[in-house]
Design brief:
Blueprint: E1 11-14, H1 22-28, E2 34-38, H2 42-45, H3 48-58, E3 63-66, H4 75-88, E4 92-97, H5 99-114, H6 119-123, E5 134-138, E6 150-155, E7 160-165, E8 173-176, H7 186-204, H8 212-234, H9 239-253, H10 266-277, H11 283-298, H12 303-312, H13 323-340, H14 357-364, H15 379-388
Parallel strand pairs: 1-8, 2-3, 2-4, 4-5, 5-8
Antiparallel strand pairs: 6-7
Helix pairs in contact: 1-3, 4-5, 7-8, 7-9, 7-11, 8-9, 10-11, 10-14, 11-13, 11-15, 12-13, 14-15
Bound molecules: 5,6-dihydroxy-NADP and zinc ion.
Length: 390
């Protein structure tokens, strides 16, 4: 087990009715003027926005609104939000929505606290040490941004989708009511199941350290998500299933399933450029296509670990004489599960054909970037992974 620092400062209110806690708790976190930030309208249709506003009013907490965050949140709207917050003296960002809304709020918070454009940090490859406080009312279990130290945004001028990683961007508070995810479509529910699994799997397959406790926590989360995922797809209003998915979304990306491991996240980095260039590709759908292909490509470097996952999570019988058979069976079972929950597993299903590969690979390998994985992944290796997903 490698040395690690574990700090998960987000205060979580979980369960039915937590919206009533919002106003007074934002005040407790020092808010005097709030930006109420949301997406394309789902929070209006479900009536959640009205509940949030009622709670802010009850606490006499002034606020302004900015909706319109798109999936793969865009820098142009973040800049607009930043100007608005500066002009209005906003000191607290409240995101009501999924990962895109949370990440848009985080980026505004970074700009606000540092008196600069948030993209400057991406350009200079530095991490901000400050961020204005961010709170989350989560409506989609997926990205884990409600407790994570990541902020992923898309520059709509260059189509580059990049992340800021800093302890400063962890939200101070999250209000998690599983009922607020009942209206999520089957497709977005599937994307969320895959993304939640991936945040744990990317920490599981690092090849750098043996951490039995961390592995077993990861496997428990994966099994619970596997089963709750099936149940939520079958019955979108299954409270227990939605509750499991929501809590798993947070725990999968708050680092608890990665303690003692080195963070690399190669499949995420490959995927971000796919959804950066192809705005219609949801992050979870891109991962569903890429992860099994990446697994096939690197399997030979960690056969026993892939066999362990296959056996403990996907129920494949362990073949001790030929563990590679078990490992391959696990990847097949994972692909079958993704198909079962309605997720794509080929590049073609994402609408991407081989003549479009170079444009995306150029972004991933910009400036000679080589991704860390079991072996370094440059343009040639990434193309091979795409091919395995054809
Ligand atoms: O915009 P609205 O109308 O709200 O509709 C959204 C959107 O169209 C809809 N939706 C959300 N909650 C709903 C709902 N529809 C009905 N009922 C509800 N309760 O779902 C659509 C997708 O929303 P989005 O926020 O984009 O999805 P998700 O939560 O999966 O977030 C994806 C973004 O997070 C980034 C991804 O790259 C992507 O940009 N990630 C952020 C991470 C982080 N900051 O830690 C880590 C992840 O690995 C990921 O990269
Ligand atoms: Zn993700």
């Amino acid at each position: 087990m490698n040395n690690f620092v574990f700090c998960t400062p987000t205060k979580v209110f979980f369960g039915r009715g937590v919206e009533a806690e919002i106003g007074k708790n934002l005040r407790a976190f020092g808010a005097t003027k709030v930006l109420l930030h949301y997406g394309g309208g789902s929070v209006k249709r479900t009536g959640l926005l009205d509940k949030v506003i009622a709670s802010l009013n009850e606490a006499n907490l002034p606020f302004i609104e900015l909706g319109g965050v798109e999936p793969n949140p865009k820098l142009s709207l973040i800049r607009k939000g930043l100007e608005l917050c500066r002009a209005e003296g906003v000191d607290f960002l409240l995101a009501v929505g999924g990962g895109s809304v949370v990440d848009s709020a985080k980026a505004i918070g970074v700009g606000l606290a540092n008196g600069c454009d948030p993209w400057d940090f991406i350009e200079s490859k530095t991490a901000p040490t400050k961020c204005a406080p961010v709170g989350v009312v989560l409506t989609l279990s997926a990205a884990g941004s409600e407790m994570s130290n990541s902020d992923v945004i898309t520059n709509d001028e260059t189509q580059l989708k990049r992340g800021i990683t800093s302890e400063a961007v962890r939200p101070v508070v999250a209000f998690l009511n599983p009922e607020n995810t009942f209206t999520v479509s089957k497709f977005q529910t599937g994307c969320g199941i895959v993304d939640t699994m991936m945040h744990t799997l990317e920490r599981y397959f690092t090849g750098d350290a043996d951490c039995d406790l961390t592995d077993r926590l990861a496997e428990a989360l994966l099994v619970a998500v596997r089963d709750a995922g099936r149940a939520a797809i079958a019955n979108p209003e299954d409270y227990e299933a939605r509750a499991t998915l929501m809590w798993a979304s947070s725990l999968s990306h708050n680092d608890i399933t990665g303690c003692g491991k080195i963070r690399k996240f190669p499949v995420h980095k490959i995927e971000h450029d796919i959804s950066g260039v192809h705005d219609n590709v949801s992050h979870g759908a891109g991962l569903s296509v890429l992860f099994p292909a990446w697994a096939e490509y690197v399997l030979q470097y960690d056969v026993m670990k892939f066999a362990q996952l296959a056996n403990r999570v996907w129920g494949v019988e362990m073949n001790f004489d030929h563990p590679e058979v078990t490992a391959c069976g696990g990847i097949r079972a994972m692909r079958a599960y993704f198909k079962e929950i309605g997720m794509p597993t080929t590049m073609k299903e994402l609408g991407i054909t081989p003549d479009g590969y170079d444009e995306i690979i150029e972004k991933t390998t910009l400036g000679g970037t080589v991704l860390k994985s079991y072996i370094p992944l440059g343009a040639k290796e990434i193309r091979e992974i795409y091919r395995l997903a054809e």
